Amino acid sequence: MRFLFISLFLWTAFLAQAQTGDLDTYLSAQGLVDAKKLDHSLQMDLKYATTDNFLGEKVYDGISGIWLQAEAAEKLLKAQQYLKQIHPNYSIIVYDATRPMSVQRKMWNLVRGTNKTNYVSNPANGGGLHNYGMAVDVSIVDENGIALPMGSDFDYFGMEAHINKEEELVASGKITQQELKNRRLLRDVMTRAGFRTILYEWWHFNAVTKAQAQAKYKLVE
């Protein structure tokens, strides 16, 4: 009983550390890998570690890497290689990767009761692929680190961010032909590497289906 109590205490302390500070240490201990260390040309701007996001709040810190399951990291590196073959001066930039459930719960609590609940997975429903370390939010930057225009900002929740009727968006002037070209470049390199798109966010890519993630991986708490 005493051993169980001590183990529970240590695990609780470890989770507290993950939520308040050194996420790098925590995610590494969960078996995830830092894709940034595997390919230094990858760029990152983890939006939820800043206030520059749709929540307007920082929801985690203590992180300096692009943490993913090895399978997803390998696909991200392939996408970067494909992009470099086409545009050597361009790079993929990562806005979000693994998102622990502790962070997901914090995000849900911030949007609960607002009109933003459709854009955050309810943790009570089992979490999304970010919570398994199998999804990334990405864009492309040029040689000066400036993001290519994509027709909407990251985390913009409106029709301009949708990918299923882009020709109509161009025809109506909501996005430009160049912005559509940039989106297609991003989708091309990501899907060639094995990622899957979703309809409503041009920036979001899943490495596998949710059923595949549930069968192979544990939620990152």
Question: What are its keywords?
Answer:
221 residues, alpha+beta, 5-stranded mixed β-sheet, two-stranded antiparallel ribbon, 8 helices, 7 strands, globular, disordered N terminus
Structural class: alpha+beta
Spatial separation of the terminal alpha carbons: 24 Å
Given the structure, what is the number of helices?
8
Mean pLDDT: 90
Give, in spatial order, the strands making up the sheet with the most strands.
2-4-5-7-6
Description:
- The protein has helices at about 1-20, 25-30, 35-40, 70-85, 100-110, 165-170, 175-190, 210-215, and strands at about 35, 45, 65-70, 90-95, 135-140, 195, 205.
- The chain has a 5-stranded mixed β-sheet. A two-stranded antiparallel ribbon has the order 1-3.
- The longest helix is centred in the N-terminal third of the chain and has 19 residues, at about 1-20.
- The two termini are about 25 Å apart.
- It is α+β, with helices and mostly antiparallel strands and about 220 residues long.
- The model is unreliable at about 1-20 (pLDDT under 50).
- It has 8 helices and 7 strands, in the order H-H-E-H-E-E-H-E-H-E-H-H-E-E-H.
